[in-house]
Amino acid sequence: MIPFPEDPVRPRRVEIAPGALHLPGWLPLDQQVKLVEACRAWASGPVPMRRTRLPGGGVMSVQSVHLGWYWRPYRYSRTADDHNGARVAELPQWLAELGREVVRFGYRDSSAADAYRPDVALVNYYDRDAKLGMHQDKEERSDAPVVSLSMGDRCVFRFGNTENRNRPWTDVELASGDAFVFGGPSRFVYHGVPKLYPDSGPPGLGLSGGRLNLTLRVTGMGS
């Protein structure tokens, strides 16, 4: 289990919207370092980290690598049929357990955590100029919560509404080590990353710059 040291300055749980919780400083630095090392290994393949091409021909500015399932707009598959055709790496159980700990800590609900079985991880790398437009995570056949872990540079995480990409929204600053979980009435909220703060990550992380975001989801697609 991940330790949760007391922090007299930053709140432990911040409700952004019903079912959406920001957990500042949730992941200690040594655990962040291990995750950065793991992300670096995953980035080399079997389906290497790359920029995703959108249906209209554009290319996302973030670079991504996937575990468990391969995501491309707007569906999942086991193999990267639009790239090298390889099957993606398996999602390790220790990573799924990390997601369950976020759910347990965020919702204070051991039953919900025990039932949480993420089967896909999307690892996104943002360089200093990368952004992510407002979107819904809706390719899944499940309404289980989405768990997000941040490492590296701080960013603005824009958390909107379930109807469209417009206001109202709430801008949340996510720092290295922060976790965020959204489920229940907030599961299908539009969200995005409009801004990074370059060179704001902690020293000793093993990341030369930019931001890593690891997102765990339940596809509901079985085996």
Describe, in plain words, how this protein is organized in 3D.
Helices cover 16% and strands 33% of the residues. It is an alpha+beta fold. The strands form three sheets. Strands 1-2-12-9-14-7-4-3 form an eight-stranded antiparallel sheet, covered by helices on one side. It is globular and about 40 Å long. The two termini are 27 Å apart.
Strand content: 25-35%
Largest β sheet strand count, sense and barrel closure: 8 strands, antiparallel
What assembly state would you assign to the polypeptide chains in this entry?
single chain
Q: Residue ranges: pLDDT <50 for 5 or more in a row?
A: 1-10
Helix content: 10-25%
Question: Main sheet: which strands, in order across?
Answer: 1-2-12-9-14-7-4-3
Distance between the termini: 27 Å
Q: If you average the pLDDT, what whole number results?
A: 94
Overall 3D form: globular
Number of helices: 3
Give Rg in angstroms: 16 Å
How many strand segments? Answer: 14
Structural class: alpha+beta
Keywords:
single chain, 223 residues, 8-stranded antiparallel beta sheet, 4-stranded antiparallel beta sheet, 3 helices, 14 strands, globular, disordered N terminus
How would you summarize the topology of this molecule?
Elements: E1 14-17, E2 20-23, H1 29-42, E3 50-53, E4 59-67, E5 70-72, E6 75-77, H2 93-107, H3 110-115, E7 120-126, E8 132-135, E9 146-152, E10 154-159, E11 170-174, E12 179-182, E13 191-197, E14 211-217
Antiparallel strand pairs: 1-2, 2-12, 3-4, 4-7, 5-6, 7-14, 8-13, 9-12, 9-14, 10-11, 10-13
